[in-house]
Every structure is written in C-alpha cells, then in structure tokens.
C-alpha cells in the first residue's frame, strides 16, 4: 500500500474543488505511548529500531512482521495520528464526519504486523471513540477480512465488527460466518464470507439489509467505516467486480444514518482506481456531485485511456456468488443477531484521559477566547495547488520524477474532516 496513493487522491480532491467544502487538517504524529494503547511495547520497540540496513538482526521478528522500509515507524505515526485526531474531533462534536484515507490498516495485531499493516490505527481510533460512545460499530468493505480489528474486540459487546470479504483460499484465511465472537462478545462479530466476482447489485443486496439489521439490533452511537478499495473491479490483488459507484453506494448508505462517522482507507493495489474511489467517496460524504471526467492534474495520464472517474465492471468476470448462497448467509447472520437481547447497556462514567498526548488540555480552553492549538493545525494554503500560494507553480511538472520520489514520501497522509 504505497503512500503515493495519497498523492493521487489528494490531487483529485483538490482539482474537483472538494477541499473547499471541508476543513483539512495536518495530523499530529502519534507518539509511541499512544500507539501502545493497543500494541505491545516489544513490538513498538521493534518498529522503532528496525531499518532496511539492520533487518538481518531481526530475522526472527521479520518472519511474522511485514517488509521493512526506511521511515516505517514515522509512516505509522502519521497515519495513526490522523485517525486519532479524527476520532478526537468526533468525540468533541467538532465535526459529524471525519476522513483519513491514509488510515484503515486493519490486519495489524497487538504484537505483530500483517498484510502490509504495521500499526492498527483502526483499533486506536475505536478505543478513542469508546471514551465517549457506549457502542461503536465497525464496518469493513475491503476485499480482505478485517481480522486485526475483529481480534482486538472479539470478547467485548461494546464494539460490533462487520466484515464483507472474500473467503476461502485467500488472505488472511479468516472470517468464516461461524466466527461470532466469544464471552461477552459472542454474536458481536459479524462475517459475510463471499466468493469471487461480486457485482454492484449483489453487494448492495446483502450490504444494505445486513447493515440495517445491525443498526436496529446494536444501536451504535458512532460508526467506523473502512473503505478498502481492493474490493473494486480490476484491483491487482482483489477478485471482486464492484465499481466505484457500487462502492460509493455503501458509503452513502452508512452516511444516511446520521451517526458520527469515521471514514478510513485500507487496501487497494491499482492506485489509479484507489484514487478514483476515495475522491468519489469524498464527494459522496460531502453530498456533492462531481463530473465523470477526470480534472486535469499532475497525474492526469495515470487515468488513461478513459480519463473517467467511474469504472465499468469486467464483463468476463463471472460472479460465483449465487442468490441462494448469499440469501443463506444473510439468513444465518440474521439468526445470530436475533440471539442478542437488543443493544447492550453500558454504564458510562466520566470519560477517562484521552490516549492522545496533548501539549495542553483542550477541554480546559475557553472556546470563546481562542481555539486549541491542535484544532488550528490546518493544512497551509500552499499545499492545495490551485492559487498564487502554490509554492511549486514555478517548477516544471514532471510526473515521472514525482512517481519515483513518491515511495520515499511518507508525509503525504492527511486527515480530512467534513463538518
């Protein structure tokens, strides 16, 4: 999941003028202490110390962790900070919807990385939301099972995890319908195992009724939505046939409930399609219509030959999910949800200290006299490439040069929040 996905997404969001309709903030870098709210100290120590040059010293750890690159821990701090900041702002009513497309790394476990995911920012974000919300719903539309998030909350009834994913001979190999949760969390893990070739129509016909039933049963007070774009048609590692419109329809359906919503990225390995999906879903979350014609930008040629925003399904990809199969899974999920006695009651005491290590107590600041320092950390105008403040406008555009440098650019992740 190369960070230059963020650059392509950023340029589409900017050139569709969507950034003008939202507040854009620079994320703080999550501290090791904040990340240890979920991850083990030993694992975080490993991430801080390992580099491509010394990784041979950590051969045993590397067998279970992910490939190492320069700046891996800084990268983790940036995208995790974005998710924590987004959850913090939702908690304090500073926005209704918060977006961090750089987040959504759902495979990382407490003491190990997995599936190109090093730090599980989703778990960190949910932990932050639980400080103020009695029940948090997690929805995952990545083509891969959201195993790391499910595992983290497998024995609690305060978080319900719902994952729609390819199941079978496919990474990570988990997410059977029989995986329900345990102890207090029994029936609070919902898995919809799918086969190859899912189409927009098939996806819609299972997603909407399942989410509607989950909302009715669990009654969450906040929602986290992971929008992995590897469930799109044409993804290098995916096997579904869902278009950008179908993917976006799921986002719009979740948005329609009007609950505090944290929207995150995730997988996606055909980067031009990742940018298409996340730019379109930014528009969906804003309630804005955007043209199907890709606006000219520094990466315009990436979208050849169609230069269109929306994808067409692959007519040669067969949908292996029969109506009977999907109906059977849906019925079994409904039966499991009926085993619950409605939404669990949670005794909410005074909110504990935030896992975010702030330089000041923002709640103690008088909002009528000055804004907290962190809430003022907006992206500078020079980052938006659309006016005279553009610091790069005098330099020639060289997309090939930019592309070669993008892998080393670990600082492009931004947290975008929608009022």
Automatic annotation (TrEMBL):
> Where is this chain's protein located in or outside the cell?
Nucleus
Which InterPro entries does the UniProt entry name for this protein? Answer: HDAC_I/II, HDACs, His_deacetylse_dom, His_deacetylse_dom_sf, Ureohydrolase_dom_sf
Annotated a divalent metal cation binding lies at 142, 144, 230
Instruction: Tell me which residues this entry annotates as catalytic.
Output: 107 (proton acceptor)
- The protein's enzyme class: hydrolase
Here the segments flagged for biased composition (Basic and acidic residues) are: 367-381, 398-410
Histone deacetylase domain residues are: 1-284
Give the EC number.
Answer: 3.5.1.98
GO biological process annotations for this chain's record?
epigenetic regulation of gene expression
Catalytic reaction list? N(6)-acetyl-L-lysyl-[histone] + H2O = L-lysyl-[histone] + acetate
Q: Specify the domain of life of the species encoding this protein.
A: Eukaryota
Q: Where is this region: Disordered?
A: 344-419
Which Pfam families has this protein been placed in? Hist_deacetyl (PF00850)
Q: Which GO terms describe its cellular component?
A: nucleus
**Keyword Cell membrane belongs to the record:** no
Q: Which SUPFAM superfamilies match?
A: Arginase/deacetylase
Keywords assigned: Chromatin regulator, Hydrolase, Metal-binding, Nucleus, Repressor, Transcription, Transcription regulation
Task: Recall the GO molecular function terms of this protein's record.
Answer: histone deacetylase activity, hydrolytic mechanism; metal ion binding
**What family does this chain come from, according to its entry?**
Belongs to the histone deacetylase family. HD Type 1 subfamily.
Q: What is this protein called?
A: Histone deacetylase
What organism, scientifically named, is this protein from?
Albugo candida
């Amino acid at each position: 999941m190369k960070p230059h996905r963020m650059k392509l997404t950023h340029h589409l969001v900017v050139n569709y003028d969507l950034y003008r309709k939202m507040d854009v903030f620079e994320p703080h870098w999550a501290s090791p202490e904040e990340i240890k709210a979920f991850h083990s100290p030993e694992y975080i120590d490993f991430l801080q110390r390992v580099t491509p040059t010394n990784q041979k010293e950590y051969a045993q750890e590397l067998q279970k962790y992910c490939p190492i690159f320069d700046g891996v821990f800084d990268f983790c701090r940036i995208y995790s900070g974005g998710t924590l900041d987004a959850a913090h702002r939702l908690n304090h009513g500073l926005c209704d919807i918060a977006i961090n497309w750089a987040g959504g790394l759902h495979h990382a476990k407490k003491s190990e990385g997995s599936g190109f995911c090093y730090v599980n920012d989703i778990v960190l974000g949910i932990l932050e939301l639980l400080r103020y919300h009695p029940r948090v719903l997690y929805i995952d539309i990545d083509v891969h099972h959201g195993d790391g998030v499910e595992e983290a909350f497998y024995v609690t009834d305060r978080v319900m995890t719902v994952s729609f994913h390819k199941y079978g001979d496919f990474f990570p190999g988990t997410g059977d319908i029989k995986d329900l949760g345990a102890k207090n969390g029994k029936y609070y893990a919902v898995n919809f195992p799918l086969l190859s070739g899912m189409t927009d129509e098939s996806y819609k016909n299972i997603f909407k009724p399942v989410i509607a039933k989950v909302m009715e049963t669990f009654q969450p007070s906040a929602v986290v939505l992971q929008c992995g774009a590897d469930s799109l048609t044409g993804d290098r590692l995916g096997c579904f046939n869902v278009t950008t419109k179908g993917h976006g329809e799921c986002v719009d359906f979740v948005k329609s409930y009007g609950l505090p919503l944290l929207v995150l990225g995730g997988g996606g390995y055909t980067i031009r399609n990742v940018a298409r999906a996340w730019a379109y879903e930014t528009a969906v979350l804003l309630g804005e219509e955007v043209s199907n014609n890709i606006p000219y930008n520094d990466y315009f040629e990436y979208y050849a030959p169609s230069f269109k925003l929306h994808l067409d399904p692959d007519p040669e990809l067969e949908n292996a999910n029969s109506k009977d199969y999907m109906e059977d899974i849906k019925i079994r999920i409904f039966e499991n949800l009926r085993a619950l006695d409605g939404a669990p009651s949670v005794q909410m005491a005074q909110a504990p200290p935030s896992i975010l290590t702030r330089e000041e107590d923002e709640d103690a600041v008088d909002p009528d006299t000055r804004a907290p320092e962190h809430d003022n950390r907006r992206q500078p105008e020079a980052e938006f490439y659309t006016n005279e403040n553009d610091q790069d406008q005098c330099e020639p555009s060289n997309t090939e040069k930019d592309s070669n440098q993008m892998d080393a650019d670990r600082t492009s992740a931004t947290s975008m929040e929608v009022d």
